[in-house]
Write a structure and sequence with these properties.
The protein is mostly beta strands. Helices cover 11% and strands 49% of the residues.
């Protein structure tokens, strides 16, 4: 009996180590808008949610995001890409944390610390684009280590008019 329990445990651990893909999470799903995400960091998943799917169509909406840091953040950089039909059509990058100039409350956090954010986010655009597309977001630190990475799949058929 003990041998079978140990064997099952070993098989589970081997499967977890062999799997490098996280599940797809549903952020929201309504009649005309669906948003899903999957971590593209093979070693870490994270939590992300939006209060109401319909709020995404507004200029500002509330989110919740949480994770445990695998790397310290002295400097933090974000790169966001809009991908349509497998091709990157728009790319944006920005420095979010650097010594003496931090845009986020978790700049300076150390490896192993928890990050939790709950509050408003402004997209900086009046309307999210219609259609099916992917938004890829990657956060890296000063050592070019991945802090967080996600691919958001958007299916937007909202009528703004």
């Amino acid at each position: 009996m003990k041998t079978s329990n140990v064997l099952v445990l070993i098989l589970v651990l081997l499967y977890i180590n062999a799997s490098t893909e996280w599940p797809t999470h549903t952020v929201c799903k309504e009649d005309n808008l669906e948003i899903h995400y999957k971590s593209c960091d093979p070693k870490q998943d994270f939590a992300f949610s939006i209060d109401r799917c319909s709020d995404v169509a507004s200029h500002t909406f509330n989110i919740r995001a949480a994770m445990v840091l695998r790397h310290s953040i002295k400097e933090l950089y974000v790169k966001v890409e809009l991908i349509i039909n497998g091709k990157t059509v728009l790319s944006y990058s920005e420095t979010l944390c650097e010594p003496g100039h931090s845009k986020l409350i978790f700049c300076g956090k150390k490896k192993g610390e928890h990050i939790y954010y709950e509050g408003p986010v402004t997209l900086g655009i009046k309307e999210i684009p219609q259609g099916d597309y992917t938004v890829s977001a990657k956060l890296t630190n000063e050592d070019h280590a991945t802090v967080a990475c996600a691919d958001f799949t958007v299916k937007n058929y909202l009528d703004y008019y």
